Amino acid sequence: MKKLIGLLLFSFITLITYAQTDNDIVVEVAGEKISKKEFVEMYQRNNPNPEKKIIKKDLDEYLDLFINFKLKLAEAKKLGLDTLTEYKNEVNSYRKQLVEPYLNDKTVTESLVQEAYDRSKEIVRASHILILIPANATPKDTLEAYNKALSIRNRILKGENFGELAATYSDDPSAKDQTRPESSNVVKGNRGDLGYFSAFNMIYPFETACYNLKINELSMPVRSQRGYHIIKLTDRKPTPFSTCNIAHIWVNFDNHASKEEAKQLIENAYSDLQNNISFDSVVSKYSDDRYSSKKQGVLASQRVTSMPVEYTEMIMQTPINSYTKPFETRYGWHIIKPLLLNPVESIEAQRPTIEQRISKDVRSYRTIEEFIKKSKVEYNFKEDLSKLDAVIKIVTDSVFVKNWQVPESFEGKENIFTIGDIAYTQKDLAKEIEKNQLNQTPEYIPTYVNNIYRKISDEKVLHFADMKLETKHPDLKVTIDEFRDGILIFSITDKFVWNKSITDSVGLSNYFEKNRDNYMWKERADATVFNFYKEIDIKKAKKVIQKGIKKKKTNEEIIEMLAKTFKVKEKTVEYFDFKWGKYERGENKIVDMTNWTLGISEPIQIEKRNHIVIVHQQLTPTNKTLTEAKGIVTSDYQEYLETQWIKYLRTNYTFKVNQDVLNSITN
Length: 667
Description:
- Its EC number is 5.2.1.8.
- Keywords: Isomerase.
- The protein is α+β, with helices and mostly antiparallel strands.
- Among the domains are: 131 residues, Chitinase A, domain 3, CATH 3.10.50.40; 100 residues, Chitinase A, domain 3 (Roll), CATH 3.10.50.40; 95 residues, no CATH class; 104 residues, Chitinase A, domain 3 (Roll).
- 44% of the residues lie in helices and 18% in strands.
- The chain has 22 helices and 23 strands.
- The strands form seven sheets. Strands 17, 18, 19, 20 and 21 form a five-stranded antiparallel β-sheet that branches. Strands 6-3-8-7 form a four-stranded antiparallel β-sheet, sandwiched between helices.
- Helix 2 packs across helix 16 and helix 8 packs antiparallel against helix 9.
């Protein structure tokens, strides 16, 4: 959405803190000063062609959006949106996911092999909505994609249907219904459903996001090289088999005049099987798969994760060498016969393949233990294990029944370890033991204390290194700040623009009335199209329709007259139907072929199907009602609210541009 341009990318203002002088400041917004160096770095960082000479027009446009962004952010903080628990939890949750790769070193390890193997033993099913980011995306493109993903996620959380939003907004073509070029059949889109998959079937961030989700849980936007994904996990179960051999009968929608015809054929095939006709013979007679039909319907070995989800589910329900009932997929109707199911191989059998795939994958990080080891060296970790003795002496067996307390007399001032500028004392360890004691089987106290210390010290080292990640990795800081500020801007924009445009029915109505001449129907044809799907006497059909018109029959009554004339007693939709509407030019090619001539048309043949059109009247341009124009009016009203809001912010907050410094950027 254009209204969202400038949302997240400007959060880069916190990227690096520079020593600033007033002579170096490009802009000051709501009390925050931005230096020339900082501003140029932000601009270039979000420019797909950073080597390209900076053009003043582009810079001015960026500055204008930047000021709007900073004003919105200032307003969000003024309203305390950054102090809300929900906001903090969302930021922390996202950061936790984001820093995970930084807390591991790049190497092939047993833990990664085990992770991949464990995932291979479980299949997950997920749906996604992809918001594409073009290869040559501008900063605006990236920002708009991210904001669009956040907006869609918010709509899902508010109760809108995931599949419908995927069909409408996802840039994954498979989500939408598609008409096959070789036929007029419509292939139903998957509505974002990716079916079942396992380790290595998806890019690692996407895979990890899915395996970390609970069933029916919704992810935050997940970035991939294609764009941003909103993911919903819909199922997970043990992998039923690794590969399988099956035979199938496939009646392809594209090979038949209608879906009803395809369904009838598969029902005939199933009837033959029920009458003990061999599977091979039925394959030869009915299957549209020209490759497998020559091999008794047998397909090459299939992986569980490479088949349509309907295949996987039917195979799991069907005994070996038995056949399924007919079932439908987006590709047609099927009957399958499982021949052989191969179980998941052992980890040792798969190890060479797993290690090779890991080496080519972003998951090739070292384990967390190795990361901790390096962090201890990097941050000058020092420990004195002899200082544990004082803690060991005060811990008693009561700790194993959750009844131990640190003695009041215990001072515990000496350091057990230090890392950076942080010291961890004997008293700190004792308090940690008291806090986390459990009912458990008694242990040897020195071993117990040492184990707890080792766990806690590793956690503290990891936490210290975690706190340094943004300083050590500026790109990580940029991403986290982008998300943090983006959530704030999204929340406040929803409050003042998006949600208001939906709930403020009076404001929307008033806006429509003031601008109603912007929402006009063009010249339209009021027409009915009769469609014929079988070979019939089309001239005779036209006479029936003419007779119906003369007798002022309704379209439904004309269909009844056609059925009576051609002796169609049931399933008339397999023979003929009609569609009535009011069409602007270009909306219905069949109607357009009549040149909108009033009355009944001559038969029109398209792709071997006949059509007869009745043009009832030509409608002159007229105003749309609010109901008819609701979508575009709401969008325009949002633009209006955004504009008014920006005017308010620019009036109530201060901002100042140092034009000389700005001009020097392009000189």
